[in-house]
Description:
Blueprint: E1 8-12, H1 16-27, E2 31-35, H2 39-58, H3 64-72, E3 74-77, H4 80-84, E4 89-92, H5 98-111, E5 117-120, H6 127-131, E6 140-144, E7 154-159, H7 165-177, E8 181-186, H8 193-210, H9 215-226, H10 232-239, H11 241-255, H12 264-271
Helix pairs in contact: 1-2, 8-10, 8-11
Amino acid sequence: MRVGDVRKIAVIGAGTMGAGIAQACAASGFDVSLRDIEPRFVEGGLRRIREPLQARVAKGKMSAADVDSLVSRIQGTVDLGDALGGASVVIEAILERMDLKKALYAEMDRVCPAEVIFASNTSSLSITEIASATQRPDRVVGMHFFNPAPVMKLVEVVRGSETSEATVELIKELCLKLGKEPIEVKESPGFIVNRLLIPVLNEAFNLLLEGAASAEDIDRAMKLGTNMPMGPLELADYAGLDICLDVMEVMFRETSDPKFRPAPLLRKYVRAGRLGRKTGRGVYDYGKE
């Protein structure tokens, strides 16, 4: 299969990342099915796509006809068979839980023709282990987008132990067609970006817990001192504190390296439901925005 043969892409998981990936695919001319397990999740994903695009129309940055054309290429569904039907590539963006992913991949493997490629948007889990749930480990690959997926240029293309060269090359070509910059990574905990970024975010929480500085000053120091566009605590709120914690726990479990041991304050915030922007409160309070 060549990238020119890909007409339809199935995106499984209609959360923030899944919706963003679906939008990026549709914007590049692909037909897209966006699937989740409940209608309210599917509608939520479609709303995440429509509302920012409508805001662009209101600002004169995009025409209503272009928005209608893009949205018309995305079909929401709760039926896995409908979502997968006719798709050449499946991009999975469900919760970062290995048990859920392996169950999904086993089911998709039974439904999809052997040539269909499965790509996981996982930010930390093993592609090799995910692929072990299928009879096509050579056609399972990591395709790690960054939030917001329609805007961020990087995609980490992660090669599991059994991923074929043909699969990697097709996904890299697909990334280019989506207007992204693919970087190939051999499977390792956290890949590239999270391997470097997570210790920074974690240490920011340790500094805050110790009272070394305020959250505002920790973020301001990193923005002014390293030219980061967003401070580490702001970034954690943007990504979701629960997501950050999940990634840290996977990396700590995989490496036993203490630099990945989650900061107690981060655990405390997650337990309190302070997950960041998506809940209105994390390190910062967004209730008045």
